[in-house]
Amino acid sequence: MPETPWTSQRLLDELTALGIAYQLHEHPPVYTVEAAREHWAALPGLPVKNLLLKDASKRMWLVVAPAEEPVDLKALPQRIGSKRLSFANPADLAATLAVEGGAVTPLAVVNDSERRVGVVLDASLAGAALIKLHPLVNTATLALSGTDTVRFLMRHHHPPEVMALPR
């Protein structure tokens, strides 16, 4: 992790510098998909959920899926070449992505300079016209294209595994 984690403003400046169009909607803090639903209506695009997972060998994955779709966590390890997965704890989240719970986003790979977290992106999101992601904080939501999200991940050395996640 870098000495100073990226701020939301630095992230927005980076998106602008890369020519990545986005829409920003600020809202009160949200910590769950359920709490965010009322604020998502202000933006176009598909809402997502982000699951930071790890296995016994401490290998970590950030699984990005449509918010309203289940993910079969028993079938997922075989699909991504892992053993049994569990949810990462707040210390893992702080040490790798440097965001708080409720603000988990694939854009947080900017803080994973050690490349400890692999990104697994549902195929329906990678090709979506717009998806909704937090900009490193849980007090705002961005709408940006799936293609631009993948481009951003590649630029920051976290090429995603794009697949149809097991349901």
Spell out the blueprint of helices and strands.
Elements: H1 8-17, E1 23-26, H2 33-40, E2 46-55, E3 60-66, H3 76-80, E4 85-87, H4 90-96, E5 117-122, H5 123-126, E6 131-133, E7 140-144, H6 146-155, E8 161-163
Parallel strand pairs: 2-6, 3-5, 5-8
Antiparallel strand pairs: 1-7, 2-3, 2-4, 6-7
Structural overview:
- The protein has 167 residues and is α/β, with parallel strands linked by helices.
- It has a single domain (8-163), classed as YbaK protein.
- It has helices at 8-17, 33-40, 76-80, 90-96, 123-126, 146-155, and strands at 23-26, 46-55, 60-66, 85-87, 117-122, 131-133, 140-144, 161-163.
- A hairpin with a 4-residue loop joins strand 2 and strand 3.
- It is globular.
- The N and C termini lie far apart (32 Å).
- The mean pLDDT is 95.
Give a brief description.
The protein has 167 residues and is an alpha/beta fold.
Principal-axis shape equals globular
Q: What sequence of helices (H) and strands (E) makes up the elements?
A: HEHEEHEHEHEEHE
- Overall strand count: 8
* Rg over CA atoms: 15 Å
Number of domains: 1
For the record, give the distance between the C-alpha atoms at the N and C termini, rounded to a whole number: 32 Å
Q: Treating each run of at least 4 consecutive H or I residues as one helix, how many helices?
A: 6
| Helical content class | 25-40%
- Give the oligomeric state of the chains in this entry, treating copies of one chain as homo and distinct chains as hetero: single chain
Structural class: alpha/beta
CATH class: Alpha Beta
Unreliable segments of 5+ consecutive residues? none
Task: State the major sheet.
Answer: 8 strands, mixed
CATH homologous superfamily heading: YbaK/aminoacyl-tRNA synthetase-associated domain
Overall pLDDT level: 95
CATH fold annotation? YbaK protein
Annotated CATH architecture: Alpha-Beta Complex
How big a fraction of the residues is strand?
15-25%
